[in-house]
Amino acid sequence: MERANFSKLISFIKLDFLSLKPYSKSILLLIIMALFFGIYFGEPTTVISIVMVYLVLIMSYPFSISEKNNMDSLYASLAINRKKIVLSRYLCAAFIAIAAVLLSVGFSFIVSIASNNKFNFGEISFTVCIMLMFFSLVISFQYPLYFKLGYNKSKMYGLIPIFILSFGVMILSSSNIQFGGVFKDIDINSLISANTSLINISLLTLSGILLTISFFVSYKFYNKKEL
Q1: Is it the case that residue 150 has pLDDT exceeding 50?
Q2: Burial per residue of 89-113, b for 16 or more beta-carbon CB atoms within 10 angstroms, e otherwise
Q3: Which residues are CB-contacts of 100 (< 8 A; sequence separation ≥ 6)?
Q4: For 107, which DSSP code?
Q5: Which of 96, 98, 119, 141 is the most exposed place for a label (fewest CB within 10 A)?
Q6: Which contiguous run of DSSP H or E holds residue 157?
Q7: Dihedral sign, Cα of residue 101, residue 7, residue 139, residue 16
Q8: Is the separation of the CB atoms in 59 and 96 below 8 Å?
Q9: CA atoms within a 13 Å half-sphere pointing along the CA-CB vector of 175
């Protein structure tokens, strides 16, 4: 019984992967562009940022394809366990995120060689964890919406965290933030460099917690949804 349930879960994950196949050319183009811009700017972390931001945008495609083909009604008619459907969607996102990280880190190494920049593992790992946190925040907000309202009704709302986070990054990068009082002598870059491992672990842990909470919220919404 457990083996049959696991096989069904794997089948749903494969189905989500297949839903991305029509977009394979645009995904390949994005990867090439990320590598090009990384080499052009001579900045290895650029590749990671571009790939992970675009990854967030394509993670809504399985919902779009599923809704377009009325897959929810099919699942309902077959009395398929809804928890497996929700879990497969999150696992698919996790697998793609891991693959994207490995690919972008590999490209970052290529960029560092092409631009004669030292491959700074601390900087790369911090960028990866920051972008995974970005990915987790957006997915944790979007997926419950998509499961509750459907893709077409909620796709505009799903862009809200992307705009907010992008705006926040823009403000922070363009502002000269200074601390006052006892914190006035703190150097943010030095603080991050001295505590990179701790910060990375914290970011990854928080990302996992967010996605776990989001999964249970999505399941609650989807389980009550009339298909």
Answers
A1: yes
A2: bbbbbbebbeebbebbbebbeebbe
A3: 51, 52, 55
A4: H
A5: 98
A6: none
A7: positive
A8: yes
A9: 9
Region 193-214: what's the mean pLDDT? Answer: 91
Task: Say if residues 140 and 210 touch (Cβ distance below 8 Å).
Answer: yes
Question: What is the average pLDDT across 119-124?
Answer: 86
Q: What is the pTM of this model?
A: 0.83
Query: DSSP of 109-150, one letter per residue?
Result: HHHHHHTT----HHHHHHHHHHHHHHHHHHHHHHHHHHHHH-
Q: Under 8 Å CB-to-CB from 225, ≥6 apart: which residues?
A: 72, 147, 148
Per mean pLDDT, which range of 44-58, 144-158, 161-175 is the poorest?
161-175
Q: What is the DSSP string of 168-189?
A: HHHHHHHS-----GGGTT--HH
- Are 34 and 51 in contact, with CB atoms under 8 Å apart? yes
Task: For CA atoms 103, 85, 75, 2, give the dihedral sign.
Answer: positive
